[in-house]
Specification:
Strand content: 5-15%
Mean pLDDT: 89
Oligomer: single chain
Number of strands: 22
Number of helices: 27
Distance between the termini: 64 Å
Low-confidence stretches: none
Helix content: 40-55%
Structural class: alpha+beta
């Protein structure tokens, strides 16, 4: 109880502002002119807030948001893992209180990481105080704390201890419980939304399964017992990973389909090298602000942004980790943590050819920042520190104290050396006080360790003192990483945005020029429609098409952005094709005087095509030549001629007729909803109806109630061939991948329930079976 009480107090110390009404969210981003408390929290504001708000609005209406029509000319929403539509905690956003729910999920995720890591270390039979140290170090390490405002990352990594503990239980006689817990943990890690961290969680769980199974088998006395242990262990591991994948199939299957159509198909080795952690940043293991801090607006990291260098797990974890390697180097847990730590260092620093090997693997080749394998380093340090403290508590030998003291003195010397050789951009008045604080923490830790060794009757007080020092060290550095704020409106109300909302039409699109006058992704919050957006899963065909107006390939591939545009881009007929009606900003290339002037000028483009139009001609063009053909077409040609694939122009597609191609009559959009668009067309000859929204598998079309083939028109847009006459056309989104994934998830859930119910039903049937009488029958 003392250990759990300590964990509760530690959690409260880190999140206490929530108890007087503050939110753990960077609301200061809503005021661009303000000095930001932490400028590295932009993803929480620009990405996660709009996604969660949109998710909550659609769920409150009784709908699952499968498609997002507001950004990037339309993009899959539920198929994208980062939106975490299927993650159960995120369903709370349906209440409409985005800031409150974000804060609750954030602080409860920290609590979950704390308690689950404590539980795993207790499953490994570590002393409660040692397990508390490991839990505090894991939950409040630099990686978890720095990324905890990016809820998809902390949501993915917090389930790792549950997966490890479940594997351990499954291998030691508690097969059903262990399999269930581990499979649920792996599935929740997927559903939480960050693919790269999920891969790390699954890889670590697989490594632990190998190490734990090997240790369990070797502990058996004869070859037959070892063989049976290996068979049971392999079966349990396959069941864990199979059920985990099955439970998460509702996300995995659509995501696998989506990954084939995005710009980040594969990251080059050069990009991996650029994103690696410079070796000089290892100094932050000792002095975490050695290169300054984004919080103090003096960060001078080596080409890596501040939040990607989250490498600190507390000073005192290092000598205790060294003790674990000295005392229990052959322990399965120590071997596992050592392997994980070495892989984390080698991958983050791209040592030798590790980066080339790791990032040539499937799935990982679509990620870009090897620095995030720092997670393994913090995991290894805190886990080893827990083992080291367990050894110190149980043995309290002079050799243990000597190891801790030697490493502690070495860290003190390193602290003094680093403080003296500080980066030239960091003043001594900034770094020296932090060095003195580090020396004080090392001294306090060493004193407590000596007291634990010498005063055997008061070892509990000494160890609790050590826990307090470690927690205080992490709190002094990490608590302010995510400033708490008073809740206030996050979506700015600007007059120019109000003008954009008043533009008539079923789907008038806008774009920014010069800078982001309207924040990326905030079209979701304002109910606007844009060709811009910030998303790691941007459809490559859309980027190809918009790049004909202005090259956006590099920005989309490396920065996950499309937009903003230079004024000259709006002279391109591609902007007309995409229906860009309004431009926010300014420039000589924009037509006429602005239609509105507020915080920014808004220019109207009357040449923009309507959301849907009829083309009287269709020009079959081979895939490899489509973009070249579109580049040379004028706005009039784009309006009258649909460019289609030769194989995608069956029967009713009107053939090209040079000299006679003209724009078709105006159409009427009866309904424009995210997953359903209804268009009526007047009487005309054979035509192609073009809906200038992004094409993607899962969209279907019915003409007058009958299914028709959906065409991919103009490389990236939707269309359908219409026969002569007037028609009612319905485009609807019914992604088969989501349906298949949901079915596999449901089946896996049934299997999991059956694992628990079937043995219980068997026992009840045996209990009800009549017992045969023994002896002679009565007279």
């Amino acid at each position: 109880m003392i250990a759990l009480s300590f964990l509760a107090v530690a959690w409260v110390v880190f999140v206490y502002p929530i108890f007087y009404g503050q939110v753990r969210f960077p609301v200061d981003f809503a005021t661009p002119t303000a000095r930001l408390a932490n400028p590295e929290l932009g993803d929480a504001f620009f990405a996660e807030y709009p996604w969660h708000t949109y998710l909550g609005e659609r769920l409150s209406e009784g709908e699952v948001p499968l498609w997002d029509p507001h950004r990037l000319a339309g993009t899959p929403f539920a198929s994208s893992s980062v939106t975490a539509v299927w993650y159960p905690p995120n369903w709370l956003y349906a209440t409409g209180h985005t800031l409150a729910v974000f804060t609750v999920i954030s602080v409860l995720s920290l609590l979950g990481a704390l308690l689950l890591s404590y539980w795993f270390l207790r499953v490994m039979r570590l002393h409660p105080y040692a397990a508390s140290l490991g839990a505090v170090g894991f939950a409040f390490s630099a990686f978890v704390l720095k990324w905890s405002a990016h809820d998809s990352i902390i949501g993915s990594v917090m389930w790792l201890p549950l997966a490890l503990g479940g594997v351990q239980l499954a291998f030691h006689g508690r097969l059903r419980r262990g399999t269930t817990l581990a499979a649920l943990a792996l599935a929740l890690s997927v559903l939480a939304g960050h693919a790269q961290m999920t891969m790390y969680v699954w890889a670590a769980t697989g490594a632990w399964a190998v190490v734990a199974l090997t240790a369990t088998a070797l502990a058996k006395g004869d070859a037959g017992a070892r063989r049976r242990t290996v068979i049971r262990g392999v079966t349990a591991t396959v069941a864990i990973f199979g059920l985990g994948a099955g439970l998460a199939a509702v996300q995995l299957v659509p995501l696998a389909q989506l990954s084939e159509f995005i710009t980040r198909q594969e990251v080059s080795y050069l990009e991996v090298q650029v994103g690696s952690l410079p070796a000089a940043h290892l100094a932050t293991l000792v002095l975490p602000d050695y290169f300054g801090s984004a919080l103090d607006h003096n960060y001078n990291g080596l080409a890596i942004n501040y939040i990607e260098t989250a490498l600190y797990a507390g000073l005192l974890t290092i000598p205790l980790a060294a003790l674990a390697l000295f005392r229990r180097w052959s322990s399965p847990l120590v071997l596992f943590l050592l392997v994980v730590g070495v892989v984390g260092f080698a991958t983050a620093l791209n040592v030798g050819s590790v980066g080339r090997i790791v990032y040539s693997l499937p799935l990982l080749s679509q990620t870009r920042f090897p620095t995030r394998s720092i997670f393994y380093i913090d995991l290894a340090l805190t886990g080893l520190a827990a083992v080291g403290l367990d050894s110190l508590i149980r043995h309290r030998s002079g050799a243990d104290v000597a190891v801790v003291a030697t490493v502690t003195l070495g860290l003190a010397a390193a602290t003094v050396w680093l403080s003296a050789r500080r980066p030239p951009e960091i003043p001594g008045s900034y770094l020296v006080p932090r060095g003195l604080r580090a020396l004080a923490i090392l001294a306090a830790g060493l004193v407590v360790v000596v007291l634990a060794w010498r005063l055997r009757r008061t070892v509990t007080l000494a160890v609790i003192g050590l826990l307090v020092v470690v927690t205080a060290d992490l709190w002094l550095h990490g608590h302010r990483w995510h400033p708490f704020h008073a809740a206030r409106p996050v979506v700015p109300v600007w007059s120019d945005v109000g003008h954009l909302q008043s533009v008539p039409g079923p789907r008038p699109r806008f774009a920014n020029t010069g800078t982001y006058w309207v924040f990326p992704n905030f079209a979701l919050n304002y109910g606007l429609f844009s060709i811009e957006g910030y998303d790691p899963y941007i459809l490559s065909r859309f980027v190809d098409l918009v790049s004909l107006a202005e090259d956006q390939q590099k920005k989309a591939r490396l920065l996950n952005f499309v937009g903003y545009f230079q004024p000259q881009a709006f002279r391109s007929p591609i902007m007309d094709l995409l229906g860009v009606r309004s431009v926010v900003g300014g420039g000589d290339a924009l037509p006429g005087p602005p239609a509105f002037v507020g915080r920014a000028a808004v220019f109207e483009r009357p040449s923009a095509f309507p959301a849907a139009f009829l083309a009287t001609c269709a020009e079959p063009v081979r895939e490899s030549q489509t973009l070249a053909r579109l580049r040379e077409m004028s706005a009039g040609e784009l309006r009258s001629t649909a460019v289609v694939s030769p194989s995608a122009s069956p029967g009713a597609v009107p053939p090209p007729s040079p000299g006679s191609c003209r724009p078709g009559p105006e159409v009427t959009i009866e309904r424009y909803a995210p997953e359903r668009v209804v268009v009526t067309t007047p009487a005309a000859g054979p035509t192609v109806l073009v809906l200038t929204d992004a094409w993607f598998p899962g969209w279907h079309v019915r003409v007058d109630g009958r299914a028709r083939p959906l065409l991919r028109v103009d490389h990236a847009l939707r269309g359908v061939a219409l026969p002569e006459g007037s028609h009612r056309v319905e485009f609807f989104y019914r992604p088969g991948a989501v349906v298949v994934g949901a079915g596999v998830t449901a089946l896996s859930a049934i299997v999991l329930v059956g694992i628990w119910l079937v043995p219980e039903l068997r026992r009840q049937l045996r209990a009800r079976r009549p017992t045969p009488l023994s002896g002679p029958p009565p007279r």
